[in-house]
Amino acid sequence: MMNQLQGEVIAAVAPSSNLGDYETTYNEFKWEDVEKEFSWSTTGRLNLAYEAIDRHVDAGRGGKTALLYSDAERDESYTYEDLQLQSNKFANVLRNLGVSKGDRVFVFMPRTPELYVSILGTIKVGAVVGPLFEAFMETAVKDRLEDSGAVALITTPTLLARVKRDELPELKNIIVVGNDVPTDDGLTDYRSAMSEASSETEIEWLEREDGLIIHYTSGSTGKPKGVYHVQNNMIQHYYTGKVVLDLKEDDIYWCTADPGWVTGTSYGIFAPWLNGATNVVRGGRFSPADWYQTIQKYGVTVWYSAPTAFRMLMGAGEDIIAQYDLSSLRHILSVGEPLNPEVVRWGVKVYGQRIHDTWWMTETGAQLICNYPSLPMKPGSMGRPIPGVEAAIVDDNGKVLPPYRMGNLAIKTPWPSMMRKIWNNPTKYEEYFRIDGWYISGDSAYQDEDGYFWFQGRIDDVINSSGERIGPFEVESKLVEHPAVAEAGVIGKPDPTRGEIIKAFISLREGYEPSDELKEEIAKFVKIGLSAHAAPREIEFKDKLPKTRSGKIMRRVLKAWELQLPVGDLSTIED
Ligand code: WT7
After folding, report:
1. Going by CA atoms, what residue is nearest to atom 2 of ligand 1?
2. 526 lines ligand 1 (CB under 6 A)
3. Which atom of ligand 1 is nearest to the CA of 359?
4. pTM of the model as a whole
5. CA of 336 to the centre of ligand 1 (A)
6. How far is the CA of 82 from the centre of ligand 1 (A)?
7. Residue 215 pairs with which residues in a beta bridge?
8. To test the ligand 1 pocket, which listed residue (229, 464, 468) has its Cβ within 8 A of the most ligand atoms?
9. Cα of 263 to ligand 1 centre, how many Å?
10. Nearest residue CA, atom 6 of ligand 1?
């Protein structure tokens, strides 16, 4: 089990000045000390949007650039004051539509400044934000809006076509951002509503335990789970922004994640603005040239991305790096899946920087185990729990295991940004806390004698493809809707660039014959019905799928077939 890379250590190149007191008092660390840095600790008036935007304006920093945005057509810059006024307007637009505290308001649109303004405005009225990936198709969109009981949605004319309005009675208002907004009932034109709205608003003052955001994420069974987070998260967003992202006031920070994913909100919106940094948002798709151009153009200093992107950049080679000036970079971080040691070494070589791995989950709301700047790095390790967080490897009975023993990666409860519920599903929520005093992550890992954690894999069947978490059940459910598919079992197959790809094993209905055309058609069916990232990249037809006597498809047997490993205990198999 011991990792062969265990011996390798890369010293901290830039000890974090921000960690400062927090690290020296590692053992006496108190979250209450972090809380004192928020305005509500003295005023009692609490709202994350105020804390992230308005507070800086009130402190005389309104002229500072908050958002630098560009895509193929637009190139814009917004100060903190601009965002304050725009989000006030949007809050008024929502109020005029009758939206109020606790309502769920979803955003389904590409990364544009309007998306950020919508999210901030939603928080200002005390409503709960629900971000959706732009890539989602009809079923994925409907499932999430329905489960959450969303009352309003902000989208674009193109994406509106994927919203099954007649099947969503609770969705009373849709705000459409773009040209040629249709004039149907229930549709509001963002631009005209914004131009009529006042730029002054009454911020809804909230409690720490009031709702903030619901991120839908996948598990191994059932539909996606609505992970519900509260305002209290801001404590950890702010603190990790400071000690892990190492944000300082003059930083130009770029998080490459989409807000459809928790990284794109916790670290693409909240952490940078709570820390008063300048936040870069780049619309459009991944391309090495575009990305390096973005770093050069804005002089990005702190950059947070994902292993799959770093691997693709590595694949794009060093010649392209030589064409850009990337000397502004001083701190690079990664999240989402295991960060390969060779990527870390490559980063040191080509960027002159260690790429700092961070571990956390949608459910944890913020970073927990990290290579923070002052920590000597062991490439391949996720790092150590940050001050304030306690992690351990426990067995299924909750016994803490000694170094090098593999087991459940568990976090001592509570921490500020821990999820507070799974929407509509208390049973699922409780499963995470089935061992007293611990949150059970679903990841397996071990710890070394220096307290570093080493990721080993998922305990369940959840697939991690290019850092996106995909539930096999959701894909299987879509597959069996196809007329040719009798049964389907879906697994993650190891892939050098994407971490894993989705592979589907399919048995066909009577009258259908296996063919490459059929494979393509089935993959396309999932792509159109669910989303591109959920579509299987590989399909294999089988006469029969391995099932338990209770009829459950045994994904672990499919995986063993794929990897040519022993299939293990088959006592529950059907025949
Ligand atoms: C799962 C959570 C919160 C943003 C990350 C994605 C995997 C995450 C790492 C890492 C190895 C990682 C885990 C985890 N994961 N970070 N640094 N090393 N694996 O959030 O979609 O909720 O997925 O991603 O398996 O459980 P998510």
Report:
1. 361
2. no
3. 17
4. 0.91
5. 4
6. 34
7. 227
8. 464
9. 10
10. 336
- Please, what is the Cα angle at 308 between 305 and 313, to 5 degrees? 80
Six-digit token string for 551 = 């009829």
d(CA 31, CA 232): 11
Distance 470 CA to ligand 1 centre (A): 12
CB atoms within 10 A of CB 381: 30
362 touches ligand 1 (CB under 6 Å):
yes
Residue with tokens 């579509």: 535
What is the per-residue DSSP string for 57-115?
Answer: IIIIITTSEEEEEE-SS-EEEEEHHHHHHHHHHHHHHHHHTT--TT-EEEEES-SSHHH
Give the atom of ligand 1 at the shortest distance from the alpha carbon of 364: 3
Ligand 1 atom with the shortest distance to the CA of 458? 25
Rounded to the nearest angstrom, the distance between the alpha carbon of 337 and the centre of ligand 1 is: 5
Find out whether the beta carbon of 360 lies less than 6 Å from any atom of ligand 1.
Answer: yes
* 304 membership: H or E segment, kind and range: strand 302-305
The protein residue whose alpha carbon is closest to atom 14 in ligand 1 is 361
- pLDDT truncated to tens, each residue of the chain (575 aa)? 344 455 678 877 554 556 655 655 566 789 999 999 999 999 999 999 999 999 999 999 999 999 999 999 999 999 999 999 999 999 999 999 999 999 999 999 999 999 999 999 999 999 999 999 999 999 999 999 999 999 999 999 999 999 999 999 999 999 999 998 988 889 999 999 999 999 999 999 999 999 999 999 987 777 889 999 999 999 999 999 999 999 998 999 999 999 999 999 999 999 999 999 999 999 888 999 999 999 999 999 999 999 989 989 998 999 999 999 999 999 999 999 889 888 999 999 999 999 999 999 999 999 999 999 888 999 999 999 999 999 999 999 999 999 999 899 999 999 999 999 999 999 999 999 999 999 999 999 999 999 999 998 888 888 999 888 888 888 988 998 899 998 899 999 999 999 999 999 999 999 999 999 999 999 999 999 999 989 999 999 999 999 877 677 888 899 999 998 887 766 666 65
Q: Which two tokens stand for residue 193?
A: 């509503």
Q: What is the DSSP code (8-state) at residue 266? A: I
